[in-house]
Amino acid sequence: MKQRYVFVLAAALALVGIAVFMWKWTVLGFPVVQDQETQVWTIESAISFDSGPGSIKVKLHIPTLTPGFRTLNENSVSRGYGFSLNYPSGGREAQWAIRRADGRQTIYYRISVYEDPGSEQSDTTPPFPPPPVINEPLKTAVDVVVADVRERSADAASFTTELLRDMNDPSPDSNVELLVSEASSNTEFVETITTMLAAARIPARMIHGFILAGRQRSAVPVAWLEVHDGDRWRFFNPATGEEGVPDRFLIWWRGNEPLVSVEGGSNVQVDFAVQEYHLDAVSIAERQADQQGSSVGGFSLYNLPIQTQAVYSVLLMIPIGALIMVLMRNLIGVDAFGTFMPVLIALAFRETQLLWGVVLFSLLVALGLSIRFFLERLRLLLVPRLSAVLIIVVLLMLCISLVSHQLGMETGLSVALFPMVIIAMTIERMSVVWEERGAADAMRAGLGSLVIAVVAFIAMGQEWLEHLVFTFPELLLVILALTLLAGRYTGYRLLELQRFKALVGK
Amino acid sequence: MRGVARQLRESGVLGLNERNTEVIMRLNPRRLYPLVDDKARTKEIALAAGMAVPDLYGIIRNQGEVRRFADIVADRSSFVVKPAQGSGGDGIVVVTSRSERKRNAFRLTSGVLVSEEELQYHISNIVGGQYSLSGNPDKALVEYCVQFDPVFADVSYQGVPDVRVVVYRGYPAMAMVRLPTRASDGKANLHQGAVGAGIDLGTGKTLTGVLDDEIVDEHPDTGALITNLQIPHWAHILELAARGHDVTGLGYLGVDIVLDRDLGPLILEMNARPGLNIQIANCTGLKRRIERIDDLHDATASPKQRAAMARSEFSLPIT
Predict the structure, then answer these.
(1) Rounded to two decimals, what is the model's pTM?
(2) Which of A41, A113, B163, B200 is the most exposed place for a label (fewest CB within 10 A)?
(3) Predicted ipTM beyond 0.85
């Protein structure tokens, strides 16, 4: 009956642990591997202008729907300006306002984004555009071209492709030539295209964005064409007619309106700079969790102060050491001093490194043991004797540090990190076992402790494991489940097979 | 390795993990442990039940009482000093006689002479808790030194041999005799190097022995055969062991009995976590006997009936 309780409990714990882990991993994107970094781009726009005599109002289109990207954070730097966000149709607008300003002004707006293929555009279906009002002689040219292209196309997409091919034809017919010559810039060209698509009752709009590639001092927005085929928005390269967007194309704003408008200022200049850097995937996952309104991010260990984090990154490895301890003692059957002494020794090894740790530990215990045997002759009472051993251990640590420092071996200094009380108790236990059961037993248990400490150190020193447990502390529930199961393990210990070998086949 | 484990399981060998989880935790409620972990209490309850135990000369309960030691042993020339809560025979000192020239020098089983002062230091260590299971302050018992039965004279190197009976739910399940060796320093504990010899429950005759997990037939120091020795008072020993269950309530119990030349079987101590070496000494796994006892268990049977049942059930066919 108890057996079943334990199994059910262990299964429940493991299930909860794994479920939370899977959720954080797959849904929130917490990285299972350390140093998993995500590329992050920061695009900074600097609006500078000469202030006029009166009040100033600056409006800047800023990104809102950015397929393929997610926003990490955004902020604006503007001294003395009031800041607000507006949502005109199909976009987002930052607005800065000030009553008075002197001299040349610069306002910064900065946004950091990272790539996320899952971020889809969730735009609404636009209404059919009204027939555009076009003056002659362009109207006739538009009508002729639209009628011509309509003949050669089946739907919105193929219409757009055909139209763009005609408009980009190096030897265009007279109507196309008239329309193209009207457009003096790339932006105006795309604007003309949207007008012609509107004449064909196809919803279309111009989009402006940046191709994020490395670091750019002065990035120029690229105009692109977005066409709604009745189902979804599709992108077209206005220069070739090909469908799609360039890689890492961040849509900044949509529509024909100018990027920035400044009331009460003149000589406006907008500069864009793109910076690329890498950010720990964990922080992105946390912000994403925040944005999704999940409290997991808030409960993450990464929100703790750095020093506390450092403490927990060690503490969270102790269960791993405890699990090793359970396996070594109950499954293998290694003899050791004290229940958790080897785990604590293994913790000290983290600071001293393995080889030095083993050397220093053996040295400390050997020296302590020999002095303990001397103390035995003095016939001290138990508690004073234990205290004497403790004081001697402290002195020995000091000596080892001083001697190794003199010899130029700085690693020797780390002996101070050994848990001295534990060492003192180990020396005491070992000397008693030595006296009572002989050197062989004492050495065996001492060696067993050391072996467990080394194995625990190796397990606790796995960086991927440390990262995994630190990022997903719920995995400790799985470890708890494993220890519960080990607690009901009734099979033989590995070393018992050797011990009872005389009984084999009886 | 898997093959070995399977064979051991088929032989019914009880492993430590299984002993702990399936037997001790099930049958030995923790609240009963103090009865056997404290030898002074064990002695009390055994005496109250009319069972024979070595005579208690005195108890030293704290450091202040250590100097009473001389008074306690004033007119004794042989005695045993042991920690009330010791385990595995640790901290037990057996004094066999006094020095002829100096009355306050004591001769140990090994022949070494120790001074009264040294013994007092040892007692103060005991009282300080050096040998107690938990490290807590302890009591030191001074008691009668068993004059062991000559049957074991050839197969013991100093020290006092004892008979360990594992009692499962009141039924003796397995027994062995533990013989001190030079390596064990006169102590009768197997992991200190004593030889254990299994005993046929039916006849009370020794089987082969075990030394450091190896099967042996001879005593390593005396060279005498340790097989086929008849343990005297066998029926009485088994009954005494079976009664151990009634006085302690422990379902899995090791009862250590010494055979005194004059007083017969005496209960030395009881153990709530008896070790598993007894299986090696008997060349038999405990599990089958446990299962058999579970089948035959009769809550109303008297200790005598239970001992008799064990004798008939667990007797080896004569080979």
Answers:
(1) 0.66
(2) B200
(3) no
